[in-house]
Amino acid sequence: MIVRCAYASRAATTLTSAMVEDILERSRVNNPANGITGILCYSGDVFIQVLEGSRDEVCELYNAIVRDGRHSNVRLLVFGEIRERKFCNWTMGHVDLSKVNPGLLLKYHEKAVLNPFSMSGDATMSLLEELVATAAVHSRVP
Ligand SMILES: Cc1cc2nc3c(=O)[nH]c(=O)nc-3n(C[C@H](O)[C@H](O)[C@H](O)COP(=O)(O)O)c2cc1C
C-alpha cells in the first residue's frame, strides 16, 4: 500500500547552494533505498515537497524532515492512500517564477505568486503537476 504526502514550509535562513546540495544529496541517497519518490520544489524561501512510497517510510521521513532546523512552518497539505504514484522518480526542482506564466499561478490563486500556505492542498498538487508539465520546474544546477 502506498501513500502520498505533500507539505509546504519556509526556509529558516536564506537558502544557500550548500544547503540545497546537502538536502539533495540526502534525498538521492536515502529516498531510492527506501522506495520513496517525489519532488522537492523551492522558490524564494518556500519549499513544497511531495513524498510517495510505503506509509511507514513516508511517515518516518516526514517526521525527520519536520524536525530539520533548516526550515520551519511545515504545513501538511495532503496525506492519503494512493493507487498509483504521480512522481515516479526523485527530482528536486527550482521553480523560476520569472519564467512561469502568471496566468498559471492565477489559475489557482488570488495573486500571481507561489503561496501554498493560502491554497488548498488539492490546488497546490494541480499547480505542481502543471509546473512540472510545462517544464517550469528546472533541475537545480548550482
Ligand atoms: C525541505 C527539506 C526536504 C528534505 N527532503 C528530504 C528527503 O526527501 N529525503 C531525505 O532523506 N532527507 C530529506 N531532508 C533532510 C532530512 O531532514 C534529514 O536531514 C535527512 O533525512 C537525514 O538523513 P541521514 O540520517 O541519512 O543523515 C530534507 C530536508 C529539508 C529541509
In short:
With 142 residues, this protein is of the alpha+beta class.
Describe the protein's topology.
Layout lengths: L1 E10 L5 H17 L3 E7 L2 E9 H12 L4 E12 L7 E6 L6 H7 L12 H13 L3 E3 L3
The structure holds flavin mononucleotide (FMN).
Structure explained in plain terms:
This protein is an alpha+beta fold. It has four helices and six strands, in the order E-H-E-E-H-E-E-H-H-E. Strands 4-1-3-2-5-6 form a six-stranded mixed beta sheet, with helices on both faces. Helix 3 (102-108) runs antiparallel to helix 4 (121-133). Flavin mononucleotide binds at residues 9, 23, 26-27, 30-31, 40, 47, 49, 61, 64-65, 68, 70-71.
Question: Cα distance, first to last residue?
Answer: 36 Å
Summarize the main sheet.
Answer: 6 strands, mixed
- Rounded mean pLDDT is 90
**Percent in helix:** 25-40%
Shape estimate: globular
Kindly list the characteristics that best describe this protein.
142 residues, alpha+beta, six-stranded mixed beta sheet, globular, binds flavin mononucleotide
